[in-house]
Design a protein that fits this description.
Number of helices of chain B: 21
Number of domains of chain B: 2
Shape of chain B: elongated
Distance between the termini of chain A: 68 Å
CATH architecture of the largest domain in chain A: Up-down Bundle
CATH class of the largest domain in chain A: Mainly Alpha
CATH topology of the largest domain in chain A: ABC transporter transmembrane region fold
Strand content of chain A: 5-15%
Helix content of chain A: 55-70%
Structural class of chain A: alpha/beta
Radius of gyration of chain B: 36 Å
Number of domains of chain A: 2
CATH superfamily of the largest domain in chain B: ABC transporter type 1, transmembrane domain
Order of helices and strands of chain A: HHHHHHHHHHHEEEHEEHEHHHHEHEEEHH
Helix content of chain B: 55-70%
Oligomer: heterodimer
Number of strands of chain B: 10
CATH topology of the largest domain in chain B: ABC transporter transmembrane region fold
Shape of chain A: elongated
CATH superfamily of the largest domain in chain A: ABC transporter type 1, transmembrane domain
Strand order of the largest sheet of chain B: 6-7-8-3-9-10
Amino acid sequence: MTKRQFILHYFLLNKWSYGFAVVCIFLVNWLQVEIPRYIQQAIDLLGQADQAARSNLNEHVLWVVAFSLIMVGVRILSRMYALNPGRIIEATLKNDLFFRLNRLPNAYHQRFPSGKLISIINNDLNGIRAFYGIGFLQTVNVIFALSLTPIWMWRISPTLMLYSVIPVALAFIAFNQGFKRMRKYHVERMQRLQTLSEQLMNYLSGIDLIKNQQMGTWVSAEIERENDRLLDTIMRATRIQTFILPLLDYANDLMKVVILGFGGYMILQQGLTLGEMTAFLAYSALLALPLAQLGRIAVVYQMGMVSIESVQSILNAEIPETDRTLPQPAASAPTERTLSVRHLSFAYPNQESLTLNDISFDIGPGEKVGVLGSIGAGKTTLVNCINHHLDVPEGHIFWGEEDVARMPRRQWRGTVRTITQEPYLFSDTVEANVRFGTDGQPIDQHQVEEVLALSQLSDDVSRFQDGDQTLVGEKGIMLSGGQKQRLSIARALLSPADLIIMDNVLSAVDYETERKILSGLFNRIGRQSVLVVSHRISALENLDQILVLHNGEIVARGTHEALLSSSDYYRETWELQQHAVEESA
Amino acid sequence: MIKGLDIDYIRRFVHFAKPYKTWGLIGIAMLPLSIATNLLFPWLTIKIIDNYLSVGEYEGLAFLVGLMVVVVIFNYIADSCYSYFLRKTGQYTLFDIRMLLFRRILKLPRSYFDRTPTGVTLARLTSDLEAISDSFVMGVLSMVRDLINTIALIILMLVIDWKLTLIVLTVFPPVLYITKLIRNKLRSMYQITRSALAKGTGYLQECLLGVKTVQLYGAEEEVERRYADYTQEFLQAQLKSNKYDAVLFSVITGVTTITIGLIIWYGSGQVVQEAVTLGVLIAFINNMEKVFVPLRDFTGQIAAIQRSFAAFDHIDELFQEPLEEDGRELISKDALGDRLQTFQSLEFKDVSFRYAKDAPWVLKNLSFRLDKGHQLALVGTTGSGKSTILRLISKVYQDYEGSILLNGIELSSLSIEDAMPLFSLMQQDVTLFEESIAFNIGLGKPSIGDEQIREAARYVYADGFIKALPGGYDMALSGNGGNLSAGQTQLISFARAVAQGGQVMMLDEATSSVDSVTENLIQRAISRLFKERTVIAIAHRLSTIRHSDTILVLDQGRIVEQGNHEQLLAQNGVYAGLLQQTDDEPASHQARYELPKL
C-alpha cells in the first residue's frame, strides 16, 4: 500500500461520519460569518432613539443570540463526528498492526526489536489519531473559515479587505519557512525518542546484572547521552515554535491596526460606517483562530506523515504468500505421515558459512529420533527449520508429499509442536499458560491436570497457594527455570500434534525429574512422532535413531549400539558422560 | 479549578527546576511587558474611535496607529521570550527528571520489577515524560499567561465601565459551573482510558516479546481477540470523553457571541443616554474573544492537562517507591574499613524467605556456613530453593528473615557497592548488551583490560569459538545475544564471571545447555576454580561437586542433609539416593523408554 492509498483506505472507512462532519463544519462557519452582519446593523442603529430603530435593534440582537445557540448545537455534532474517526482508526490500526506482526516471520522480528515495534504502536499511533481527528477537523474548518470570511469582508469593502490581509500574507511566508524546519525536527525527535526507548528497554531487562555489577554509572551515561540528543532536538524545535510560528497571531493584531487606521480614514471620508468597521474587526477575529490553527495543522500533518511511514514499515512488510491463506481445519486423526528432510542446507543472512550442510533424514509415523550435537553444531537451527520458524528454501523438508516451505505456517504448526529451549510464559495463571493456544477447543479441567502430571508439575502446583490459578508473573518470573520448562512441556502436550520436537527442554531439570517426564511422555505419545534434541546421551540412547550433528553436518547416524562402534565422536561423548556417572558412584 | 493535589505536583516540578532558575526568571520577567502591551491595545482602540473616528478628527490619528504597531511588536517580543525561556526551563528540568528517575529505578528492589511489567517502567521514562513535555511545558505555561492577561483585561474593563463589565461577568457563573461538571466527568473518564491503555500495552508487549511462542502454538487469533477487547474498552472510553469535550468546547465558544448580543442590547440604551461611548462598546465587543478564548483553550487542553497530571501521578509513584536501601541501616564505608577487603566467611543463620508477604515460603530456616577457600554445593530438585539462595547472596532480594552474615556483618546492612565486588555470579538467564563480546565479558570496567578479557575467555575455553566468530572479540551482539547460540551465551556469561574477579564464584547451573565435549572442558575449568577459589555452585552433575567441602541437599526450601560427599554417602539418605539414580541410569533406560505396544 502506498502512503496515499493508506490515507485513503482509513479515511474511507469512516466516510459517512466525515461527510456529516463536513456539513456541520460548513454550517458552523456560515453562522459565524452571518452573526457579525447582525452586529453591524445593530451598531449602526445605536444612538437612534426612535422606537422603530430600537425594536429593529432588539430583533438583530435576538438573531445574534439565536444563531449562537444553533451554532453551539451544530458545533457539538461537528466535533464529535470529525474527531471520533481518529479514535476509531487508532483502534482499527492497533488491531491491524498486531494482526500483521503476529504473522510476520522470524526474519522480520529479528530485524525489528520489540521495543521499537511497541514504540511505534504507542507513540506513532498518537500522531495518526491526531491526523485523522483534529487534523481533519481543523483542515476543513480552516478551508471554510479562510474562504467564507474574506468573501463576507469583500462584500463590505474590497479595498479594506485587500489592505488588511497584507500583514497576514507577509507573516505567512515566514511561517512557511518555520514549518519546513519544524517537520525536520519532528522526525528527528521521534527517532531519538525511539532510540532512547530501545536502550531503556534493553537496560531494564538486564536490571539484575546491572545492579549486581554496579554498572549504574555506565548505563546512566549511555542514557544521558541519548537524553541529551533528544533535548537538543526539542530545543531547536522550541525556538521555531516560540519565535517563528506565532508570527501569524501578531500579524492578526496588525490587521486590526490596519482596519482601525485605514478603515478609520475611510470612516472619516464617509466611505464606511462604524458598524461595518466593527464587523470587520469581528471578521479579523474570526480569521485569527484558523490562522493560528494553520500552525497546529502543520504540526499534526508532519506528525501524521512521520507516523504513517513508521506504521507502514510494519503494515507493508510482506507476509509470506503461503501464510495468507486460511489454514484448513486440522485433521482429527493422526495423519500417519513421514517427515522427510532432504539435502537441507541453511545459512543465516549476512553469514557466509553454512549453519546446516546437506542434512537428510526421515522420521516415520510414530518414530522417535534424537539429535546429538556440540555447541554451535546447528541443533536449534535444525529445529527452527523443521518447524518453519526460519525461512527454509523450498524442496527440502516434506511432510508426507507436502513441502513444508509451501504449507501455511499456521497449518503446519497445528501438526508440529515445538517445545523450545527457553520457554516463554505469559503473565497469567498456571492454567491459562497451559491452555495457551487452545482457545476455542473444548478442553476440560482433567486434561489440564493430566498434562501437568505428565510433565511432573502437579506436586509443585499443589504447593502453590492458589494452585493452578497462581499467577506466574512476567515471563514466569515466579517460577524456577525447571518449573518453567515443565510448564512449557505441559502446554505443548495439551493440544494434539503429530510431531513433537523437544529442543533441549530438560536442561534445567534434574535427572530424576527428566526420567519421570520422559517415561510418562513416551507412554502417552506412542503414535506421535518425536524429535528429541539434547546434549545428554541419557535422553537419546533408547530412541529409534540418533543423528550426530557436528558443524552443521550429520557425521553419524544409527541406534545407540551402532553408533558406539561406528562413531568416535559419539563414543567419546558417551564415555565422558559414563565417566561422570561412574565417578559419582 | 485546580485541586490542591495538582498544585502539589507543580510545586514539586518547580523544585526540580531550581538549577534553571535564571531562565525561568527571565521568562517570568516578560509577563509585565506582555500584560502592559495587551492592555494598551484595547485602550488605544477606544481612544482612536472616540477621539478621532466618532468626532471626525484627523490630527494625531497616524501617531496613535503608529503607536499601536509598536505595541504589537513589543507584545510579540514579550510573549515569545516568555514562552521560550519557560519552555527551556521546563525541557531542561524534564531532562533532569528523566535521569533522576532512571538512576532511581536502578536502585529499586527486585520485588518492584517482579510486580511491574518492564513496559510500564518504560512508559514512565518515555511517554509519561513526553506527556508532561507536550501538555504541561508547552500548553499550560502559555495558558497561565493567557489567564493572567484575561484577568488584567477584565480589571481594565471594570475601570473603564464597571456596569457593562458586570453584564459580561454574569455569564461566568453558569459557564464555570458547566465547565466544572464536565471536567469532573472527563477526569474520571481519563482514569479509565489510562488503565485500559496500560492493560492493552502491557499485553501487546508480552505477546511481541513472545511472538515466537505465539506463532509456534498457532495462537495468533487467540491473542488478537484478547488484545481487541482491550482496544475496544479503550475506544469506548475515548469516544465518551470526546463527547464531553465537544460539549464543553462548543458551549464556551457560543457564549462569546451570546455575550456580544448582551453587550449591544444593554449598551444601546447607555449610548443613547451617552453613559457609554461607542468606542468603549466596540472595544468591549472586540475583546470578548480575548476574555473567553483562554477559557476555551483551557477546555481544549483539559485532555492534555489531565494526561500530564496523570503522568505526574505515575512519576510521583515511582519517586515514592521505596528504594532497596530504604529503612536499612547501611554501614558506612568508613565504619567498614577493610573488613570487606578479603572474603572470610558467609553464614546463613535460620534464614527464611518468600517472594511476597502472602506467598509460600521458598526457603525455611536455613543455616549453613562457607569459609574462605571452601566450596559449597547446592543439590536438590528444581524448585527446592537453590537459585533463591544465590539471589539472596547476590542481594537481588533483601527481605529475608533470620540473618546472613558476610565476614560477620549482616548482609542487608551492606550496600551492593561494598558487598558485591567479593562475588562473581554466573547466572542462569544471561543478559547481554548490544556491544562487543569483549565489552560483554569485561562489562566496560576500566580495571579489566583486553588481556584479562581474553584470559578469562581462555579460562572457560570460550576463546576458541569467539575467535572463530566474524570480528572475534569485537563482534557486536544483537538484542540479548540473538546472534549467538544458547551455549555460546552461557560461555560468555561464564567468562564474564571469571573476568569480574570476585573472590567467591557463584555458579548457577553452569553446565546446562552445553554439549558434553564443551562441558568436559568447562568441568576442568571448574575444578581449577574449585582448587583455587571459594565457590558456591548449583550443579546437576553430582560429579562436579563431589569434592566440595559442604554439600547442602535441599527439598522444598529446607536443608534435608548437610555434609561432605563421604558423610552424606554414609548417611545413606536423599543424596545417596540421588547418586544411586544417576548410577542406575543406563540400566533403567530400557524400562522407562519402552513404548506401549499398540
